[in-house]
Amino acid sequence: MKINGAEAGAIGVFDSGLGGLSAVREILKILPGEDIIYFGDTGRVPYGNRSYEIIKKYGRQSVNFLLSKNVRIILAACGTVSSVALGDLRGEFPGVPILGIIEGACEKAVRLAAESGNKKIGVIGTPATSSKGAFGDYIRALDNSCEVYGKACPLFVPLVENGHIRDALAKNAAELYLRELRELKLSSVILGCTHYPMLAEVIGGAVQTELIDAGAEAARRLAMSNEQLAISGRKEGRGSLEIFISDEGMNFSEIASDFLGFDIKSGISKVDIEKY
């Protein structure tokens, strides 16, 4: 894969930290010829315990930065921004399609509920995501007979960002947060944060039901939007990936590589996001 040198008209993706790279991983599988520009706000992660106004500000700055790179479509690969700020961002930036991670995950959850006859659906996310309730609202709009059980898991993002994926800390946090959901015998649980797929093993063990990766479902919707826009990327060879971050912590490359599924040691640049 070519890591840098993206052309104008790339796909833009942003998240509060590294979690959105799990969505990038899926986009690379579905649209391998596309250029992707990613921004991870690693200097201000996590967003989930921030006020709504600050979350909206951070989302606005991320979109402004990606637009400075001439992207043609943007995925807010952040459950918190998707829940709290997506409508505001779409209103402020009407000239570019901005997708979130809510719709695709909810549609799959409702489909699984209908197939199984079990209308109990779980949603886990950051405190801001859980308090906003956007996943539950969308599920009930699709099928108002569904019962939605939300749970905030505030430690999950810091655990992932610090490389605690399958160890005792991760397992204990999952059991602490998710024991009640397991007892409900849900048809599925939506991972309402793109960091959470990295914890899929311990989350799955704790809830014992099917997990829905909201970032992966968003990547599939992005691919459909790409076709609807009738904008074709390179269909031969590989596109490029550029990664921008607001701060580089310890073991950054190692953790980023875990998200992407391949080693990445170049093509990473630091940006002063406050300028945007």
Structure in words:
- This protein is α/β, with parallel strands linked by helices and 276 residues long.
- It folds into 2 domains: 11-100 and 216-275, Rossmann fold (3-Layer(aba) Sandwich), CATH 3.40.50; 102-214, Rossmann fold (3-Layer(aba) Sandwich), CATH 3.40.50.1860.
- It is built from 12 helices and 10 strands.
- It has a 6-stranded parallel β-sheet with strand order 4-3-1-2-9-10, with helices on both faces. It has a 4-stranded parallel β-sheet with strand order 6-5-7-8, sandwiched between helices.
- Strand 9, helix 12 and strand 10 form a beta-alpha-beta unit.
- Helix 1 packs across helix 11 (214-228), helix 2 crosses helix 4 (86-92) and helix 5 (102-116) crosses helix 11 (214-228).
Name its key features.
276 residues; alpha/beta; Rossmann fold; 2 domains; six-stranded parallel sheet; four-stranded parallel sheet; 12 helices; 10 strands; 45% helix; globular
Taking pLDDT < 50 over at least 5 consecutive residues as the criterion, the unreliable ranges are 1-7
CATH architecture assignment name of the largest domain: 3-Layer(aba) Sandwich
Structural class: alpha/beta
Radius of gyration: 18 Å
Spatially, the strands of the biggest sheet line up as: 4-3-1-2-9-10
Question: What's the quick description here?
Answer:
Helix content is 45%, strand content 16%. The chain is of the alpha/beta class and 276 residues long.
